[in-house]
Design goal:
mainly beta, 4-stranded antiparallel beta sheet, 8% helix, disordered N terminus, globular, single chain, Neuraminidase
């Protein structure tokens, strides 16, 4: 395993530098978001700390490994076994070479920076008609953490929909009604104190690795699209976040570590939980009003960042192995059956999203190098080698197609000052199919 790394703020406080860690690793999430209290843990996702970007996916130690685990074997019926003890596996060297044909200028056309205001932005998801995008951004003010905004793409107007207090992440626009959902800690009694502590820490210019805190006060809220009439949908101890609607808005899939709060833990489990609260993270599905909650995965290590396919028949997510050394892309049926591992890079592959055609999935991976996250695509059955999408300098993460499939938005540090912002481009679906051999 290679040495863990993180980004630390420089002495001036205006930039970040890559630094290595002897032990242990620093936490950060793929939850394109604020950081909460920095914590040192041994099960950690170290990446994108310099960006303040992460995105409905989370953390672990991202060091390369040559170790391999037992792969998931199909049953006699040809389906994958029921989800259980199997974590993300790594059974071969990555198939994608660091060099080779580059297709960004053909796959992504008319690329431009969609969000230009604020300190940084990321993790944007489109409305059903593709005219609006809901995202999180860090702006000037007395709250240093990300808040949720809706942007009219054509008009360029933006409105904050979250309360403005505490941490927020992972928002979604209802496909049929004038509603949104997002995760928030605004009802945490200590929210204002955490904001002030973060401000003071940033002003100190003390070098530090950023950490994603699985705050137990995170709940998923529903609101009108103007932010009014907030309703807590989850009301459960533990981290509840990373929610997204099904295509007709009747179901919400999300990630939670509520199991760790719902039963007595053994001493061994308690140590695992204190070391990394995401170890108990699994996927759940509930009705749009928060009722009828059902657990879909039950696997050691962190399952998160789930999304429905356009026809609601499949779910895609990323799974960290129990030791947190790698994350891979998985799919399963919407009822939790037939889990299927698509990647085996033994690195960090995360932020997957279905193309609305259902033919392939786009995601981000550092398979080319720890600090070099690029976009890749893979067919939904994982029967063809992944194809690299981006090759511009900077980190590219959290890709999302419009529901029409003709455009792509993603978070990138290809900005002049190197901060993360949301970019958008036209998408060449026909070329994608050709490159994937479909």
């Amino acid at each position: 395993m290679g040495r863990p790394f993180c980004f630390v703020r420089s002495a001036t406080g205006s930039a970040y530098e890559l630094s290595t860690l002897l032990t242990p690793a620093i936490v950060l999430s793929d939850n394109d978001s604020q950081l909460g209290d920095a914590q040192m843990t041994t099960r950690s996702l170290i990446f994108l700390a310099a960006l303040g970007v992460v995105g409905c996916d989370q953390q672990r130690d991202i060091a390369s490994t040559t170790e391999s685990a037992t792969s998931v074997q199909p049953t006699q019926s040809g389906e994958e076994p029921a989800d259980g003890a199997a974590g993300a596996t790594a059974v071969s060297a990555p198939e994608t070479a660091a060099t080779g044909p580059l297709y960004e200028d053909q796959l992504l056309l008319n690329t431009y920076q969609l969000v230009t205001e604020g300190k940084r932005s990321g993790e944007g998801y489109f409305s059903a008609d593709g005219t609006r995008i809901i995202y999180q951004a860090e702006v000037e003010g007395d709250n240093p953490f990300y808040q949720i905004f809706i942007r009219d793409i054509a008009a360029g107007t933006t409105q904050r929909v979250s309360p403005g207090i505490g941490l927020t992440t992972c928002a979604w626009i209802h496909p049929l009604e004038d509603l949104v959902i997002f995760a928030s800690t605004h009802e945490d009694p200590g929210a204002l104190g955490k904001q002030q502590s973060e401000i003071e820490m940033r002003l100190s210019a003390e070098p530090r690795g950023y950490a994603w805190d699985y705050d137990e006060h995170y709940e998923i809220y529903r609101a009108n699209s103007d932010g009014s009439n907030l309703v807590n949908l989850t009301n459960s101890p533990g981290y509840d976040a990373e929610g997204s609607y099904s295509s007709e808005g009747s179901k919400i899939i999300f990630a939670s570590n509520r199991e760790a709060y719902s039963r007595p833990l053994s001493q061994a489990e308690q140590r695992l939980f204190e070391d990394d609260a995401s170890y108990f993270m699994d996927l759940y599905i509930m009705d749009a009003d928060g009722s009828n909650v059902q657990q879909l995965t039950n696997s050691p290590g962190y399952d998160g960042g789930p999304f429905f396919s356009a026809d609601d028949q499949q779910i895609v997510w990323r799974r960290f192995n129990p030791d947190g050394n790698s994350a891979e892309i998985w799919t399963m049926n919407a009822d939790g059956s037939n889990p299927r591992q698509l990647t085996d890079s033994a690195m960090v592959s995360w932020g997957p999203y279905f193309h609305p055609s259902g033919d392939y999935i786009i995601y981000s991976s550092n398979v080319l190098g720890h600090a070099n996250f690029e976009l890749f695509m893979i067919d939904t059955l994982g029967q063809h080698a992944p194809v690299r999408v981006t090759n511009t300098d900077g980190t590219d993460i959290l890709p999302v197609f419009t529901p029409q499939g003709d455009k792509l938005a993603w978070s990138s540090t290809r900005t002049e000052d190197g901060t993360s912002q949301i970019f958008m481009a036209d998408w060449n679906h026909e070329l994608a199919l050709e490159l994937l051999g479909l």
